[in-house]
Design brief:
With about 475 residues, the chain is an alpha/beta fold. It contains 18 helices and 19 strands. About 45% of the residues lie in helices and about 15% in strands.
Length: about 475
């Protein structure tokens, strides 16, 4: 296919060429992969500045996207890609293969640096979805930090560099400029721009921008601008709405109402789960809040794991609502997002007449895009970044909701992106009177997921412990 870049894509390519440390914060669907590959091709074959490129990406993106993009565009077909994936023997063989670009999944970064030792052979590094390096405590970050001084060119790609908190920017920027702009340590960065937020004594659970604690929106805005101004010379940010005429996205909220007997079961289950926390006025931790939320969301979907990880089904209300959507699609492909493993098992069993496929690898992507799959079952974390599924259909159903705004946005963008020919319809199955409603409100408001989850759990704790005190 002939590549005819949009002006913004050409700008992104030139930005990568002009800056040895370059950040492309381009929203989903803007074609940052092909823009980056075009820069690689020019740096390699016109300017002779680069000889070997390492790409670090989410596993499914590493398996498919970079190879597919090189094969897709005429001007990139001469670039040879070696996928450093599989078992250790396969990865070692891929590293020895003669290629221009070596693609590895982020889980094997520590293995790679250990395997190579001090002999670092790559003069350019591309981190596809740099927000997966947002924690400086992870092994993958520490491994890259050690070899960063040996790399001449670094590019970070993401649509959402700081989906939850601007503190997430520091590790990504450190890998880009080694602390030149936001400081050499995350502690220094925090001290300069943030104040402790929710805490218990000396234990700080979160940090907020200076000026934000007391709803100081103006003060927080000034701090945010100052941070982005500091990195503005090497990072460019673009929003899809500013550059693309994307098809309409229609969000449909499908209320799933339980029969009274099931609703009574849910309320009793919720009461027992909350009281089992045994917290009273004690601090609710993120761990027990997430555990409670997970149990309630499982019930909303229809089944709950017991202590032995055995799923017990309570209802099929969401499955029946999904039936209606698939039936009304009249044979059009439907992309279904699930969260829990028992969701997947129940979906496969219930939808057997549609021969549902689970997204596992490249062949499943091809079958979907070729129109050979009517129902594709996908976990949001498996389709969060880089997968092009827009050719296969335009209907999404969220069977299970997720607190993660980043995963939610990225997952929807698998269909609502450049190349989509039809309006994208996003159905949300919402079990009324359950935790589903809280999650949906948080997603609509684009709220901080952790804060929204804690708020929802605290409301339930207050409700049931207040009732208990009255008895």
């Amino acid at each position: 296919m002939r590549y005819e870049p949009f002006p913004y894509q050409e700008h992104a390519t030139e930005h990568v060429i002009d800056n040895p440390a370059a950040g492309l914060f381009l929203e989903m669907g803007l074609g940052k992969t092909v823009a980056t590959l075009t820069a690689v091709d020019r740096l390699m074959n016109q300017y002779l500045e680069v000889s070997r490129v390492l790409v670090i990406a989410p596993k499914r993106v590493a398996e498919d996207t970079w190879t597919t993009e090189c094969e897709k565009w005429d001007h990139l077909r001469h670039l040879k890609v070696s996928r450093v994936l599989g078992n250790e023997r396969q990865r070692q063989a891929a590293l020895k293969a003669k290629a221009d670009i070596y693609v590895i999944n982020r889980e094997n970064v520590a293995w790679l640096t250990s395997h190579l030792g001090g002999a670092w052979p790559f003069d350019m590094l591309i981190i596809d979805e740099s927000s997966s390096f947002k924690s400086p405590k992870t092994t993958r970050f520490k491994a890259l930090r050690r070899v960063r001084p040996q790399i001449r060119r670094v590019v970070i790609l993401t649509g959402t560099p700081a989906p939850n908190n601007l503190i997430d920017l520091w590790p990504q920027m450190y890998l880009l400029d080694q602390g030149e702009r936001l400081g050499k340590t995350i502690t220094g960065f925090r001290t300069s721009y943030f104040s402790p937020g929710r805490r218990n004594g000396h234990v700080v659970y979160e940090y907020v921008l200076d000026g934000q604690k007391d709803d100081g929106i103006l003060g927080a805005g000034i701090m945010e601008k100052e941070i982005y101004d500091k990195i503005g010379d090497i990072c460019i940010s673009m929003k899809a709405a500013d550059y693309l005429q994307l098809p309409e996205r229609i969000d449909r909220f499908v209320p799933v109402r339980f029969p009274q007997t099931v609703m009574d079961q849910y309320r009793e289950f919720e009461r027992k789960q909350v009281l089992a926390l045994n917290t009273g006025d004690d601090v609710i931790t993120a761990v027990n809040a997430a555990a409670l939320s997970g149990k309630l969301l499982q019930f909303a979907n229809g089944a709950v794991y017991d202590e032995d990880k055995v799923a017990h089904e309570f209802h099929q209300e969401k499955l029946e609502a999904l039936d209606e959507i698939i039936e009304s699609a009249n044979g059009q492909p439907v992309l279904v997002f699930y969260w829990f493993q028992h969701d997947l098992q129940r979906l496969r069993k219930h939808l057997v007449k549609y021969k549902p496929q689970e997204l596992k690898g490249q062949e499943d992507i091809r079958k979907w895009n070729d129109g050979r799959t009517q129902v594709l079952l996908v976990h949001p974390a498996s389709a969060g970044h880089g997968l092009n599924l827009q050719a296969g259909g335009n209907i999404i159903v969220w069977f299970s909701l997720t607190w993660s705004l980043e995963l939610y946005q990225q997952a929807n963008a698998r269909l609502h992106r450049l190349g989509q020919k039809s309006a994208v319809i996003v159905h949300h199955l919402i079990a009324m009177g359950t935790m589903d409603e809280d999650v949906m409100k948080a997603l609509e408001a684009k709220a901080d997921s952790q804060e929204a989850l804690m708020r929802a759990v605290k409301a339930r704790v207050k409700k049931y412990f207040t009732m208990l005190q009255k008895v």
